[in-house]
């Protein structure tokens, strides 16, 4: 009799192999319009844009970024069908790869606060070569209510400021530094395991 060992293990190294395509299921990474949570011509549309850098400050040309967010009213979407873009159903989820100069971009809506007094943010997940597990961070929306009282930003002290995106017209700019002096703050969640150094 064998026993199944269900001990959690670190995630496998990610890529770079994001060109996966399964013709039988019409699924591939990245998928068509994965970076458009709303159509680019939508009146509510803003762009979330940034560059992903390694520890030496070099852009990473083959990272994959996912975002998860509330809609403009602070509602957390719960519809199925994120892989099928429907201009009438906001799913709050998107996926994009960085280009050859390390830049990612999404067309989305500016999220609202999920509760009174809470600062609105976009949850970002980073996949890249050399990472043993995905990384989680947040891009807080600048100039919004709740930023000054946000418990997460306050707990991080000065480092909390690197979680706030900058505004450039209808663009939210949020660069991601995987290591180094400007390293982005990353979060660990229960159940996530990482190898010990």
UniProtKB/TrEMBL annotation:
Q: Does the keyword Nucleus apply?
A: no
Annotated Pfam families = Dioxygenase_C
Key words, A-Z: Dioxygenase, Oxidoreductase
Domain Intradiol ring-cleavage dioxygenases, first and last residues per copy:
24-149
Q: Which SUPFAM superfamilies match?
A: Aromatic compound dioxygenase
Q: Which InterPro entries match?
A: Intradiol_dOase_C (IPR000627), Intradiol_dOase_core (IPR015889), Intradiol_RC_Dioxygenase (IPR050770), Protocat_dOase_a (IPR012786)
Q: Which NCBIfam families match?
A: protocat_alph (TIGR02423)
Family indicated by similarity: Belongs to the intradiol ring-cleavage dioxygenase family.
Name of the protein in its database record: Protocatechuate 3,4-dioxygenase subunit alpha
Source organism:
Yaniella flava
Q: What is the lineage of its organism?
A: Bacteria, Bacillati, Actinomycetota, Actinomycetes, Micrococcales
